[in-house]
Structures are given as C-alpha cells and as structure tokens.
Amino acid sequence: MESSPALLQVEQLKKYFPITAGFLGRQVGRVKAVDEVSFIVPEGQTFALVGESGSGKTTVGKTVIRLIRPTAGDILFNDTNLSVLREREMKSWRRQMQMVFQDPSSSLNPRRRVADIVATPLEVHGIGTRRERLARVRELLNLVELPEKYLYSYPHALSGGQKQRVAIARALALHPRFVVLDEPTSALDVSVQAKILALLARLQQELGLTYLLISHDLSVVKNFSDYVAVMYVGRIMEMAPTEKLFARPLHPYTQALLSAIPVVSEEELEVIPERITLEGEIPSPANAPSGCVFHTRCNKVRDLCQVELPPLAEVESDHKVRCHLFSGG
Amino acid sequence: MLDVTDLRVYFDVFEGEARVLNGVNLHIGEGETVSLVGETGCGKSVTIKAILRILPIPPARIVSGHIVYKGQDLLAMREQELHTLRGKEIALIPQEPMSSLNPVFTVEEQFTELIRWQGRYRVGWGDRLVKSFDGTGKKAAQQRALDLLEKMNIPDPPRVMKSYLVELSGGMSQRVLIAMALAGNPSLLIADEPGTALDVTTQEQILQLLKDRVEKERLAVLYITHNLGVAREMTERIYVMYAGEIVEQAPTQELFRAPRHPYTEGLLASIPKLTGGEVLGIEGRIPDYVDPPPGCRFHPRCEQAMALCQEVQPELVPIAPGHAVACHLYEADLSKE
Q1: From 1.10.1780.10, 3.40.50.300, 3.40.50.10490, 3.40.1360.10, which CATH number describes the A6-96+176-321 domain?
Q2: How far apart are CA B14 and CA B25, in angstroms?
C-alpha cells in the first residue's frame, strides 16, 4: 500500500555480536542483537522502530547506514545492496544517509565550536572552499532556526534543544535523502521536545527527507510516523501503518506496551488497551528464550509458544504479526 | 505532616548568587500522595535535598523558610537528630537505580548494614563487636531484608541478596532500593523520578508495586517527576514547579481538567497525545538563577505576559477549592469581584 517507491528495503537483516571469554578471547556465545529483520521504508515517509532495552532497534538503525557491518541480510538503498559494498565504496553513499543521535551532549565534540562541528561532514568529503563551507553552515543554522550568534560557541554554552539543532544541522550538511533519528528527543525536556519534533517534521516536508525514527516513546511515534515496527529481543513482533497499529494492536506485547503509557487525558485512556502489567523481566538478547522470544512474559502464552518461533505473517492488508494466535498455531 | 513554608535556597557560585529556590511552599498530609512536577533545572531536586537536609552547604545556603515535619522544625535539628529521622521517618527512593547502589558490595551486605545501623549517628567499634557476638543482630537483619525483598515481588530473594549491582537489571535494582527505603518503616516516602530510567513495561511494574505498597502501608508519598502522565496516575495532588517557584497546585483531576498557569498549559500542550493534535512547545529556556527575570520568572517565555508581570512577582492565590495559581492573569480576576 505504499504510495511512493521504497528508498530503503531491508531483508532478513541479522547482527550477531560475539561473546568472548578467557584471556585468549574464545568465542563462547553470541548476542543476537538483530535477528531476521525485514522492512521497507518508502521515500519521503517516516518509519518508526519501537522497542525497549535489548530490542535491537538502535542496532538496526546503525546497521542500515553501515556504521555497523551486518552479519547477514540485504540492505537495499535505492536498489543498491549496501551490505556487500566495501568500506571505501560506502563513502559516496554515506552522503545520502545520515544520523542524529540521542544525547546531544555526547554527540557533539565539546572542544569544537558549532561552526566547525557543522562543517565537519563537508570537510570530510572535501566539499567547497572554506568560505563556501562557512556559507553553507550559515544556511544550515538558519534551516534549524539557530541564531547565527552561536556560530562560534562551544556546545556547553547551548541548551539541550539548541545542541540537538546543531546535531540536526550537521546531519543535513550533505543534503542527505535518508536520516536515522535515534531517540532524537529522549534526552530533552518535554517543552523542548515538541519544538524539535516540529522542526524535524518541517524539514521532512521542505527537503523531502525519509526518516527512520527509533524511539521507545509511543506517543511520539504515533504523532510522527507513517509506519511502525515493534521490536522485542532482536525480532519484529508486529508491523503496520501507524494508524492501524494503534487502532488495532494485535500482538500481546504491543498491547501491553500501549497499555503502559502514562497518558495525560481521559480521551487517551479510551484509545489504549486496558492496563496489562507484564510479569518478569526483559530477557537479554545474549540469552533469548526458546520458541517465541516473548513467551516468558506473554499473558496469552500457550504450549506451542515455548517451542516454536511464530513467523511474521501478514494478518490483514499491510499488518504483520509474529504470534501463534494469528498464524494458525 | 510535612509543611514547607517560604523555603529559599541560594547557591554561591562563581558567577554570583544563584537564587534557586525562591519561596517554595509545600504541604503533605498523612497518607497523602503528592507530586512535584517540573522540568530539568526547576529546583525539585534542591527542594527534596533541603527537606532531607542533604544539601551541600556550602555552596548552598538555606536563606529562609521552615520545614516542619510532625511538629518539628527540621532546619533547627542537629545531625544526630536528623540521623534518626532519615530512613526511619522520611525515606528516599533515589533516581537512577543503576547508580544508587554500591557496586562493590552485595545487596545483602548493603541492606543488612542499613537495617542494623539505621538511625545511629555514630557506630563505634564497640557497637560492632557487641552486635556481631550478639548473633541475633545480623540474622535478624538478614531475615528482615529477605521479607522486604519478597514484598517487592522479587522472584528469588536469596539469589538477589547474594548479587552485586552489576548482576541486577534496572527493574530489579529499583525494587531493591524501594525495599531499602521501606526498611525503617517510614511515614513519608520521597520517590525521585521513579521509573524514569526504566523501560516502559518495567516502569509500569514498578509504579504498580509502589501504588500497592503505599496503599497497604498507608504511607505519605512525595513523587518527584517531570512526567505529567506518571503524576496523573500516581498522585492525588500536584504541585507544578518552575524556576524555583510553585506556579500552580491542584488536585490531580482538577489540574488536568482546568490548568490555569500558562506554564502548566504549555507543558500539557507539549506532550504528544495518542489522540493526535498539534504539539506545541514553550519558547525560550529556563532563566539564569544568578540574574533571574524581575517580577514573574516565567514572563519572558509567556505568551500572555503583561506589563505587570515584569515588575511584580505574582503570589499563589486560590481560585478554586484546593487549586491555587501564581499568575497575574488570575489576580486581576479576583480583584474585580
């Protein structure tokens, strides 16, 4: 049901990290951070990855732009498979894909001034003369609504929201088509969050950007994404257009997640499932449960769930769920 | 039970005098659940540290005000007396569970030490010797710790007792901290951002647990949070704080139904809602405490600011039963009546 062509298509993406022990560094296990993840991001749209600790969402974000090398799977960016490219072949592709990180206090070099931070991508790719780069930096600060007086400030002189604007300006320096937003507002206060989200929405409109939004905040996701995939311990448990997922969450985990949101109004209470308090703890991806990874906490668990992992199946048009309740188990 | 009156706390910093708390008034009755809501830098941590008398003095200075707990003025008490208060009357569940437990000791070691020496100002070698030969001291403490951990719905208390912080998850360490806070049978619990550092489903578990315990033991609780949704769920009354001042206070339902202060309205409007709608922010940033704006501290960011707001600091005036606002918009209304 995509109205625009896919800019990014991820197929069966896997990222396993080795666990070593002993001083010889023998591999004794694997952290299956991302396991068989597939999704499509249409151009100009926002695809959200939602999940809690250990879900793998940040790893997916970093892997699709090749900050981390995938263990297996295909990453098709505009029909080119990025997972098979060599590092130096990636350089030209990186101009089209950028990332904004969660905590602006740690993603900006505290010893460099704003102008230098924003100009860095231009320097790395050898673009323009110093004068031209400065002009572009001015343009970018304008774009993110940061007054020029901060050009030569250090990050510590800026507020959280202002720092994040600098991070966004830096990400846009090379005119990318695709931006991964890793929890872009989690480190910010609520009153600032709203402004940054509004800025990101405006930029998407004006520049035709495609976003991969990684977040644990469902309220943000509902208002700012077109598609959502809910991840748990490395796997996608449910995936659908945002409206559909929130209107009819099918997976027990999605329902529990939605029911746990501390809402601020009666109206919102009516649109989420009734409070479900899950038992137990989130398992570590180094030691994922057998069968369905969610079975240890599921309030609708059955015998089959402990043994067999359900497939991610399309239950309704464009609405996929990974649950035996829906795949004839 | 706890009355904070006109609390002013200043910090002496390099740039000058940071006038952080500018006359804070709080009241918590027996068995009440109250929250103090505000964003980063509004002074909520300073407020609770002042109540617990754990402010670093210097650079902090309690300039004026009273903190009266069960009839006693906490600001007039000496350290020895405060030691009997902390933990046994007023307990704190700190923020960030993963940074609040001592990583070098097991839960058992930390917890039993807390139980055995709670309320004591000085513990000499004599005391320690006596208690260890006594035998019952340590065993009794261990048993009490186990009982408390069980009340926290922890599945395997003996295993948790033997664990180090690094072996515990965020949710588990938060439960341990809550158990430790309840060990002294306090009457007032101060919960600093419970659940903020945790995943949503874990936060949900912890908040349910807290609700349960608070109800069963009929504790009074002061929740500190920046999350209005959590405040709404967990408390009966809310104080909204901005730049070291209480700008609005009301019973929970009333605050969400009829927020009056422009800051409260701005906050609510900034929260993305599941029911959609535009999400606005609040322009500007928190003021510099060394050189705060004259008059109302919020006026530079307020869309409804009037000339008066730059000159005169608004007082907290009641506008409905239990509902008070510090804003000239409402003082004007009252004087017309």
Answers
A1: 3.40.50.300
A2: 28
